[in-house]
Amino acid sequence: xxxxxxxxxxxxxxxxxxxxxxxxxxxxxxxxxxxxxxxxxxxxxxxxxxxxxxxxxxxxxxxxxxxxxxxxxxxxxxxxxxxxxxxxxxxxxxxxxxxxxxxxxxxxxxxxxxxxxxxxxxxxxxxxxxxxxxxxxxxxxxxxxxxxxxxxxxxxxxxxxxxxxxxxxxxxxxxxxxxxxxxxxxxxxxxxxxxxxxxxxxxxxxxxxxxxxxxxxxxxxxxxxxxxxxxxxxxxxxxxxxxxxxxxxxxxxxxxxxxxxxxxxxxxxxxxxxxxxxxxxxxxxxxxxxxxxxxxxxxxxxxxxxxxxxxxxxxxxxxxxxxxxxxxxxxxxxxxxxxxxxxxxxxxxxxxxxxxxxxxxxx
Length: 363
Prior knowledge:
Elements: E1 13-18, E2 21-24, H1 36-42, E3 50-55, E4 62-66, E5 69-73, H2 76-86, E6 90-94, H3 101-114, E7 119-123, H4 125-136, E8 142-144, H5 149-161, E9 171-175, E10 178-181, H6 203-207, E11 223-226, E12 229-230, H7 241-245, E13 250-251, H8 254-267, E14 272-275, H9 284-296, E15 302-304, H10 316-324, E16 327-329, H11 339-346, H12 352-362
Parallel strand pairs: 1-3, 1-6, 6-7, 7-8, 11-14, 14-15, 15-16
Antiparallel strand pairs: 2-5, 4-5, 8-9, 9-10, 12-13
Helix pairs in contact: 2-3, 8-9, 9-10
């Protein structure tokens, strides 16, 4: 952990970085996506500092192959130049998956090589779960544990005034060989959060990118991800969402979701949406109300759910509205066709008979 160095004579500068991605040659194809997590984190701090987003998946993009792996994104030398040019006081680096942590940690190291006074903060699912190891190995100065909108805003506020960063809930740090973190209670009402800071991006750059959601969706063209809820109360063995977003299902109101969709269609010119919720239909009444509003407002959109929908949360009426509201395809999260495997291994807590019923409705 570095000593806090307040910027002198200039506005606080915060750089948020989405690192390059690295895949084994036979892995699922590379996709460009809107960096939603950074957009959400940037929104509350726009009035507190000069903040920029450096998305390595679109800036000076290259694909390089070495040792059977392909790295997609900004070359390291150009990342170094961008950081040097911006001269950040704080560099926030997003690491969404453990398998993609290598490039994020490499950028953290570059920050320290450029200027040891740059405060390196890691956030996202990987640091939220592995913060102890990251801090023990001195790979960053702080980690944001869990969702970051409120935590990182407080961090920026206290950093700019020389306040005590160790007292911020949701901030993990190392001191005298001991890693500490007081976990923050997740935001209960997501409507209290500001809309993602779309104004920090060149939207056209993403919409014209040939890799935009190209292998994740049947409607990749001029599309964007939207998250209407967070958390999941289930215990599927393969899923880590409960570790960094919690088990409580929290959500935006249907009216808020509609406003967000209309903003994207009217202001950004986007009509294709990917609902990235981990369990969008957990509350069937809320989900049905969202569908009703899309239909009532006659929104000319298409949408899908790349992460799937729980079949046992649906019924014939909702399936009809799914189709009428512009759904381009339903991904039912079945996981296994063997009930015993679902019950004892996957722990999906769903009944295959219900799944088959919904499959028939969809046909």
